Structure formats: C-alpha cells, structure tokens
Amino acid sequence: MTIQPKVKTGGPFTWTQIQQIVKANELESFARSEEQYHSYQQFKHDLSSQGITINDHVLKDELQWKQSDIRYQTSTSSPPEYSTLQPQDLIFYNRDDEKIIYNKFPYYFEDSVVHLCIWSKLTIPNDVNSPVGDISPLTKRIIERYLQKTFIEKGVSPDDILWFRNWSSLQSIRSVSHIHVLLHDVDEHFIQKLIGTSGTTLTLEDYKEILNE
C-alpha cells in the first residue's frame, strides 16, 4: 500500500488554526506544504546518500554538539522526578544544555509565524503514563516557566507565543530532545538576538517554587 505524504492543501495554517490545534493537542494535524514536504524529503535523501542521518546532521551542523554531549537524567525513579538536590537532572537549568535555533523545515504556517526549536542536551523525559510518549504536567509547567522568562518577560505577548513538544510517535528526530516554539507577529530583531543562545534558564529558586520545596 502506498503511504500518502502528509501535505497541507490549500492555504497555510493561520494563527487561529494553530492555536486551536495546540490547545486541543492535535499535533498530528500539522503538515508542510507540498513544496516544503518535497524539499524536506530531498534534503533527507541527500543526507542519506552521503551516509549521514538527520540526527547526526542536526547535532554536528546545526547545534555544533557531539553525541557524547547528550545525556539522560541520573535519577532511577519512575516516573523521573526533579529535585534541586540533583541539579544535573533539571531541564532548562544549565545554560550549556540549551540552544535556540530556527526550524529549518517548518510546517506550513502563515508568514507572520516564526517557527523555532529549542534543543536540550539533557533528555526531556516522557510521561510513563502517556501511551503516545507525551510529557508530564510537571514537565510542562517547568517548560512554561522557562518560556515565560525567555519570551514573555522580555515583552512577547502571551497571545503571540505557543509551544509544543511532539509526542515520541510524531518525532522525526528522537535522539536529541527539543520543543517547538511558535511566535506570531514578534519583532525579528528580538528573535535574532535569541538565536544560538540558551534563552533565560531557570534557577534553583524557580524550581523550588514549581516543586513547592
């Protein structure tokens, strides 16, 4: 049976449509335009012909990281827990762990939407109770605090930012954890200043408040 490509027909997703999809957690609805889809497939084919995986390309060429930089939480509890006594296990805490870059192959969004990816050397743990590999409510609160400090406290309206992390079953790159951030009508100069940086990472005080320690 021929697998049909995942292509968005008609016009691009509007900001209102994007908001509805993210709010409903219907992430499987996102797609690229036909041109974007074929460009992405050609890019992966070209890498494959050189013996390069998409994971290796992102690590080496886009992030300038090594595979040995990627690590998992050291906690053996299940589900993984966060503790200020184990700062090495705190996501979005260590500045050297994060990097903000443009999504090289974004979904088919209207021109006013900028699609960023924020990558993490420390693996963002899945929720063990999620059948599709989503993240836990606690992990979402931690990410939201980071985004608040990095974007909203710097002047981005809460109405002009959305984020999501693709479930494991939707991820094309699984070996390096990342979240998607969508910005609507945000000043390009502000975005450029963030590219290549870690954003504003969390402090132990942030974590203590989130964890009610």
TrEMBL record:
<dbReference type="InterPro" id="IPR022036">
    <property type="entry name" value="DUF3605"/>
</dbReference>
<protein>
    <recommendedName>
        <fullName>N-acetylglucosamine-induced protein 1</fullName>
    </recommendedName>
</protein>
<dbReference type="GO" id="GO:0006044">
    <property type="term" value="P:N-acetylglucosamine metabolic process"/>
</dbReference>
<dbReference type="Pfam" id="PF12239">
    <property type="entry name" value="DUF3605"/>
</dbReference>
<dbReference type="GO" id="GO:0005737">
    <property type="term" value="C:cytoplasm"/>
</dbReference>
